[in-house]
Write a sequence for this structure.
C-alpha cells in the first residue's frame, strides 16, 4: 500500500500544476507543522487569497488581509526548507526501492 502511495506522489509531481516537495527531518523546527492549513489562491486579477485551517475541534476560514498573508509567508518559508522538486522525486524513489 505504501509503495502505491509513494508512486502516486511521483506521478502527481510530474503534472505541470502540481508541486511535490519533501520536508526532511533535518530541516529543523518548522512553524507550519503546528497546524494544518491550505492556501487557496486564484488566478483572477485582484482575487484575495483564502486560507482554510483545520483546528483541534473546529475549522476556520481566513479571507484576505494580513491573516491570509501570514499563512502565505508561512507556506513559502516551509517550501524553502523542503527539498527541491527533482530531489524530492529522487528521495521518494529511494524510499520506494527500500520497501
Amino acid at each position: 500500500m505504501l509503495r502505491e502511495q509513494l508512486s502516486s506522489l511521483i506521478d502527481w509531481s510530474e503534472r505541470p500544476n502540481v508541486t511535490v516537495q519533501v520536508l526532511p527531518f533535518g530541516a529543523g523546527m518548522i512553524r507550519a507543522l503546528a497546524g494544518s492549513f491550505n492556501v487557496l489562491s486564484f488566478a483572477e486579477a485582484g482575487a484575495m487569497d483564502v486560507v482554510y485551517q483545520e483546528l483541534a475541534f473546529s475549522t476556520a476560514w481566513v479571507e484576505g488581509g494580513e491573516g491570509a498573508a501570514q499563512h502565505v509567508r508561512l507556506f513559502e518559508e516551509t517550501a524553502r526548507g523542503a527539498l527541491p522538486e527533482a530531489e524530492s522525486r529522487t528521495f521518494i524513489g529511494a524510499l520506494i526501492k527500500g520497501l
